[in-house]
Design goal:
The protein is α+β, with helices and mostly antiparallel strands. It is built from 3 helices and 12 strands. It has a domain of 100 residues: Ribbon (Umud Fragment, subunit A), CATH 2.10.109.
Length: 213
């Protein structure tokens, strides 16, 4: 006797299963969004302090992750909270690192007494703010300058910034579309050595043949 074919209905996706999948998808989206926001930040360039490399009203993505696993390096373009008003964010270039001596002299920057080669700067600073002066950085201090030295409010004015003020490293420039790019950061060679005093031989005066005053 031939068995009749199994015509039982296929199991249908229940409302409960659909709701569960929807919730899992929403949780995944929230988790990804949270992770992206923890690892990155958005920033809008204001003013002209970073000309010719950045212009006003350009939009950047800033990587927080770089400084979770490492420290800022000389030449990095960073976004940080303005020390005198943490509600404002600035963008500048890291010039001096913790423990270094930074000097401005005749518009040039010296690190531990050695002049710094800065091909990203078009004009030397000739404004009154760039008078000859020197700063010695603490163990968590960074010295930051704008690339447009004559129109920049930076460490020359408000001094070094603390590590805790740094938001992250500029990563991607995404607006306007015509200027989209992954941001390059200038790399230097070995850091200038910390100068040490050169010992000098002090001549010993010859012994006198006579005694007395």
């Amino acid at each position: 006797m031939q068995k009749s074919p199994d015509v039982s209905p296929r199991p249908q996706l229940g409302r409960r299963s659909f709701t569960r999948e929807l919730l899992e998808t929403l949780l995944l989206i929230v988790a990804i969004y949270t992770l992206v926001n923890l690892a990155t930040a958005r920033f809008v360039v204001e003013g002209h302090s970073m000309l010719p490399n950045f212009e006003g009203d350009e939009y950047l993505i800033v990587s927080r992750f770089d400084y979770i696993i490492g420290d800022p390096q000389r030449g990095d373009i960073v976004v940080f909270h303005y020390p005198q008003n943490p509600e404002r964010d600035f963008i500048k270039r890291v010039i001096g690192l913790p423990g270094e001596a930074v000097q401005m002299k005749n518009g040039l920057v010296f690190i531990n007494g050695t002049p710094l080669d800065e091909p990203y700067v078009l004009d030397l600073c000739t404004s009154s703010t760039c008078k000859d002066q020197e700063w010695v950085l603490g163990e968590d201090d960074y010295f930051v300058l704008g690339d447009n030295r004559n129109a920049s409010q930076d460490s020359v004015r408000f001094g070094p910034i603390h590590r805790s003020h740094i938001v992250g490293r500029a990563w991607i420039q995404y607006w306007p579309p015509s200027r989209w790019k992954i941001i390059n950061h200038h790399e230097y060679g070995a850091p200038p050595p910390i100068p040490t005093p050169t010992p000098t031989n002090t001549p010993v005066p010859p012994l006198s043949d006579s005694m007395g005053g």
